[in-house]
Amino acid sequence: MAVETANRGGAARSGTSLLYNPALRQFVYQALTVIFVVWLFWFAGTNAAENLARANMTAGFDFLGSRAGFDIAQTPIAYTSDSSYMRALTLGLVNTLIVAVTGIITATIIGLLVGIGRLSNNWLIARLSTVYVEVFRNIPPLLVIFFWYKGVLSLLPDVKQSLSLPLSVFVSNRGIYMPAPVFGEGMSVVLLALAFGVVGAIAYSRWATAKQLATGKRPPVLYINLALILGLPLLAFVAIGSPVTFDTPVLGKFNMRGGTVIGPEFLSLYMALSFYTASFIAEIVRAGIRGVSKGQSEAANALGIRSGLTTRLVVLPQALRIIIPPLTSQYLNLTKNSSLAVAIGYADLVAVGGTILNQSGHSIEIIAIWMLIYVSISLATSLFMNWFNAKMALVER
Question: pTM, whole model, 2 decimals?
Fold first, then answer.
């Protein structure tokens, strides 16, 4: 009897120990989560298939080869109304990347300057920087886009009264018209010289850094890199005989003819996203600089280094390890906020996809393409910034 009771007690303790086993509970919770997610996808797919069958519609991506049948104003790549839906989506993706890349570059520059300005000893610069951050950071980005589109660019003179700037540049409420380069034979040699110049500048910079670490003396880098990147292509350009001409814009009866134009839709979206995102980047830069020990600046000042060089050569390199991780999130936000372009008629990926969706009725496929492209852009941006963050990390001796 005692043995039987002990066996029952041991079995009970074994069951209790299994119930409170962290590894077992973790496995059960994960298995239940996977089952729920699989069921959720199955339910969504089944429901979508039933709805498509009820509406006599078929799923698939074969429609992407059909004729688009609509025009697009912003065409950085070749496109006509006879092009396919796939070509139209590619054009929308190119327009999205143009806005994202130019906006990221501009927002980074403005945010860096404003972030440093907030820490300036100059009272006026510090207060103006603070006002900039507080104003743009607390306004919705869509409202900033409308401000540039309706409150600034639409108030410019019309085409016939365009503002004439040097180098045959004209500014009106229809955009900025400027000469368009027409490349002739031999331009490939100039581009090849530019590529060699960039590679040479990178190699020379690495050699100069290695020599500085070994001897403590840094060879001149700026002027030599400029000579390689600018001087080498310029030399090839002159030697070949200037293989570039310019198609200048000329005022016609109703509009400008010739040249190239940057439309108000792109300008308003680009300016709005750049200024809006820069206000957040400025705070990231300010926090990164504040995160660097004050003793670093004091030591540089004790060595007689000017304040500007102290910020550029001592403080900012150390602040980058604090700045880069949150900076990645702002780059991703700017890229995703570019989808607001549909509000002002800029042909980005979402705007073009919406037109295709309305014409073809393939809503599931278009939404899937949107999701796939934006996830891919975000992952590529994150991978690059993680690599850059690892390169900028301090290496302990």
Answer: 0.81
Alpha-carbon gap, residue 297 to 283, rounded angstroms: 20
Given this model, what pLDDT does residue 13 score? 53
Residues 6+ apart with CB under 8 A from 177: 162, 169, 170, 171, 249, 256, 259, 260, 261
Contact 99/265 with Cβ under 8 angstroms? no
Convert the pLDDT of each residue in 202-237 to its tens digit: 998 888 888 887 887 778 888 888 888 888 888 888
Q: What is the mean pLDDT of residues 55-64?
A: 76
The letter for the amino acid at 78 is A
Name the token pair of 52.
């498509």
Beta bridge partners of residue 163, listed in sequence order: 171
DSSP sequence for 240-288: HT--EEEE--EE-SSSEESSEEE-HHHHHHHHHHHHHHHHHHHHHHHHH
Q: Which of 150, 158, 193 is nearest to 177 (CA)?
A: 158
132 vs 187: CA distance, rounded Å: 43
CA–CA distances in Å: residue 248 to residues 169, 170, 210, 259:
8, 10, 47, 5
pLDDT at site 38: 92
| Sequence-ordered list of residues with C-beta below 8 angstroms from that of 204, at least 6 positions apart, any chain | 221, 224, 225, 228
Written as one string, the DSSP assignment of 172-202 is ETTEEEE-EEEE-TTHHHHHHHHHHHHHHHH
- Tally the C-alpha atoms within 13 A of residue 109's C-alpha that lie toward its C-beta: 7
DSSP 8-state code for residue 59? -
Contact, 324 vs 390, CB < 8 A? no
CA distance to 130, 230, 264, per residue, from 76 (Å): 37, 26, 15
Going by C-beta distance under 8 Å and a sequence separation of 6 or more, which residues neighbour residue 326?
Answer: 284
Distance CA 168, CA 245 (A): 14
260 in Cβ contact with 178 (< 8 Å): yes
Q: Which helix (H) or strand (E) holds 171?
A: strand 169-172
Rounded CA separation 51/364 (Å) = 11
Tokens 């900039």, residue located: 132
pLDDT beyond 70 at 6:
no
Q: What angle do CA 141, 144, 147 make, to 5 degrees?
A: 155
